Amino acid sequence: MPRVKPRPSAGARQGTYDADKLYVQARALTYLYRISRDEGRMKSGVVELLQWIAGSDLERVFKKAFSLLSPRRKRAMEDNGHWEDGEAREEDFYQWALSKAYNQLGREKQLRVWRAIDEECSFLNNFNDLAAQSVIARNFSEFGTAFGLNETEVEVLRFLFMGEHWDAFGGFFINELECIKLSQRGLLARILGVQRKELDNAFRGRLNTLKLITGSYRPEVAEEAQEAILVHGGKSLSESYFRTCSDTNIPLSQFLVPAATVEHMKALLCAQGERPVHILLYGAPGTGKTSFARALIGAAGMAAIEVTQPRDDENGSKRLAIHTACVWAAGNPEHVVLADDADSVLNTTGGFFLQGETRDKGWLNQLMEEPKLRVVWVVNSVDEVDEAVRRRFAFSLCFGRLSRGQRVRQWIGVLAAHGAEAMLGKDDVEKLVRRFDVSAGVVDMAVAQSLRVATGRNENDGINLGECDVFKTSLTRSLEAHMVLRENGSPFLPPQGIEGDYSLEGLSIAGDLAGTMRAIQAFDTWLRADNTGKRRNCNLLFYGPPGTGKSELAKHIAESIDRDLVVRRLSDILNPYVGVTERNIAKAFAEAEETGAVLVFDEVDSLLFSREKAHRSWEVNQVNEFLTSMERFRGIMVCTTNAFDGLDSASLRRFGHKIRFDYLTAEGALTFYRRMLAPLCPAPLTEAEEARLSHLERLTPGDFRNVRDRFELFDRDGFSPSDFISCLEDEIRAKQGGIANRTLGF
Questions:
Q1: Which of 524, 555, 577 is nearest to 640 (CA)?
Q2: Per-domain residue ranges for the chain?
Q3: What is the pTM of this model?
Q4: pLDDT band at 328 (very low <50, low <70, confident <90, very high)
Q5: 277 and 374 in contact (C-beta within 8 Å)?
Q6: How many Å apart are CA 66 and CA 280, to the nearest integer?
Q7: Nearest CA-CA partner of 443 in 408, 404, 397, 467
Q8: 539 - beta bridge partners?
Q9: Which residues, listed in sequence order, are joined to residue 281 by a DSSP beta bridge?
Q10: Number of C-alpha atoms within 13 angstroms, CB side, residue 708?
Q11: Does domain 241-399 have CATH number 2.30.30.40?
Q12: Is it true that 241-399 and 509-661 share their CATH fold?
């Protein structure tokens, strides 16, 4: 028998191993017993795995096997040249020698070798203690509970995971035995100690539907599942996927949802019974859906668990998170799942490029049928939600943009909730509403933080003038920062209002403008008072040369009736994909009707061109969609165009008011000069200059604005009225295609 180098004992060696590795070694030994103890031969791969498990203790196993050999076979092994100078080689020698000795023994003696292996690996016998200390073991237990996996499914997932993260384990079971291949499923069933049918069902069951494993030829644990299993630092697996929502300070009444609707949703969430309850909140981003959901669940007397997302949802982590939260909530009936930003899960009918996280409607439908489950889903769009999914919602509510008046009431409600009504006057609130179109949640956060900055306290128990000024400044800065963030860092540009010195005086308009304004006022009064839902509209067509004041008059109309202005240009509507342009047209009308805004289509001739001149079917379709939407629209719409003759003839009868804008008259030119240019120059117009100005043709209000913008920032003593008139002449020549070859007055 050769002399061997002294090795550390198993007990000493355990201190260098982490609990996870010991746990994996114990499972590897269990798997190895199931397929190797009854084998008549010990392959080199088995010995290599035993070397990884037992380490230096393998030499004692070899001694045991060597001692069981007959004297003749002992001498034969010694004569093979594997001892040098009485010293045994390192691990390679023991791997060769143990396999050689074992394979020469009879069955009874082989079992004695396995008993020796048991003794040398006794440090792994206390499996329960190892599992309790191993983060991996605890996470597998929690993982199985979280996803509702059975024992076989957990066993499969654990086996694949260990094969990917421990080279010795994977080298033998995955690479050498290839037991995860479909053709070797019988061997894998033996290794795991399960029936073949149970194993096949495990691969077809939740491991597949939840995408916990990927690949059919060589299955692997999905990346998201691996990350969850590898959680360290004592963090619960459930914390990776959901959290308890914090209460919102915004009362339900401030969301401007009808009280009867709110009570109905609360009753649905509180109803007893086995049937699941799913509520869908959908609408554009920033409309307050999530804040409303939290307030609704709280008002129903329940706790909300909000689904989180541990990583980008490119591979299904959102689905895992929602499923985990739902499984947990099923055992905690006082909780409601809040699945926020769930578009990628619910939108299952899109094409290849537009599809969501999964197109597996079967999984989703099965989840939504789980008894007693209560989920509030929040999405931005329902365009790609399958009909089979839609019918499973007990109730759905669309969140659109709020009107200006509704936003004012919302602001006042948030201020009241924080006890900060005295911080802002009504005029201050209206200015903020005009400038910042933000959700109730954003307002709530900005008010709360600004109140702390202004008062130095969480509660407002006394307000002075200085605090009000600090509050307003802080509030404005917070909202401006949010608007920049919402535009991904682009500068915040407040909505452009009407010119401060705007007046109808001087405009060259053909038509009864005064009568039109009275008609608009009357329609606005009816629209605010009517609750029958009757389809009526006030459609106006402004046409004429560019710069004659069409868009400014549309702004003036919106201001005069205290409504928001929604402007849609060609770039907002047209889309190269089939049907999207028509959808954008319908969406523009729907949004304006929902918010009560004045809807303006700029350069509408590109959308309402004559169908007789159309060359493609989609051109006809978009005109048809526009005309249909016009007829069904309940609100005020203004269309502007520079090309009246190019409009579709059928569209003209749908405009109740048609206003033609023309170039300024001589009197109109003088009016706009006095309003826009005279304040820039102290010198009055001479008779000659006035006559020169009066004789200019094809002048528009836009020309005066251009000249004013050129000179507005310069010293007002450096220019004369003649300089302004010369620039106006240049504007006219430019429109006629001429070129002004001189400097612009300075």
A1: 555
A2: 10-129, 134-239, 241-399, 428-486, 509-661, 666-735
A3: 0.63
A4: confident
A5: yes
A6: 72
A7: 408
A8: 637
A9: 378, 397
A10: 17
A11: no
A12: yes
